[in-house]
Amino acid sequence: MRKSLLATTILAAMVAAGAAQAADLATKMPVKAAPVAPAFSWTGFYIGAQGGYAWADNSFSNTHDLYNTYANDASYSLDGGLVGGVVGYNYQINNIVLGVEADANWADISGSGSILRAGELATNCIVSNNPCSSKIDALGTITARLGVAFDRILLYAKGGAAWATTSHTAGSTDLEYLPASYSATTDATRWGWTVGAGVEWAFFNNWSAKVEYNYIDLGSNDVTFNFVPRENMPAYTSTVDQSVQLVKAGINYRF
């Protein structure tokens, strides 16, 4: 009898202790899950710097001079480097990134050439014994962008307006009688269109690097060479057609 009573007492004590321990567990604060990092977003304003290499095609046609002697077309290539800045804005919807961007670049893209006429080295830009030369001093674009984001990698295409400040030089140097020499330079800011594509990588939350290709078509425009001295050669007008291709690398900071 005493043994049964003792066993019952011990069992009751164990049940009470277990219930108290369970009550204590119920009042403890639940363990919080680790916070989830927010998804990366390309939305926001950005500024950047860039540099690159460019090559261009330059051709003259439909040239007319007051002497109406002959009209040879001329064509040659240009190449050189550029460096500049960029500003833009992106807005991301799911994995689609819409944006606008403008850039301006100092450039040193130049070239020259002569043509052959009747089997001999002849004039370029018509009345010019010297090779005709051209140079792009500055260029830029104003474009819309459409991209697809893969987290921190952005693939995009772009298109819009483009401009370039271009100069052309023509002339003739008479080594036997220098006073008979003449020359002229014409320059203007020309507008055209551009398309391009690139890839951008956000290597930090606010910093990204890009590589981009652009094709720029500046169209056809008439240019007039006003030679000096005028008495040696009257002015003439020619149609110039120019296109530029660029490969750029840059770094952007997003706000």
Automatic annotation (TrEMBL):
Gene3D superfamilies: 2.40.160.20. It comes from the Bacteria. It holds the Pfam family OMP_b-brl. It is found in: Cell outer membrane. Residues 11-229 form the Outer membrane protein beta-barrel domain. Residues 1-22 form the signal peptide. Keywords: Cell outer membrane, Membrane, Signal. Its main location: membrane. Coiled coil: none annotated. Belongs to the Omp25/RopB family. PANTHER family: BLL7405 PROTEIN. This is Outer membrane protein. It comes from Xanthobacter oligotrophicus.
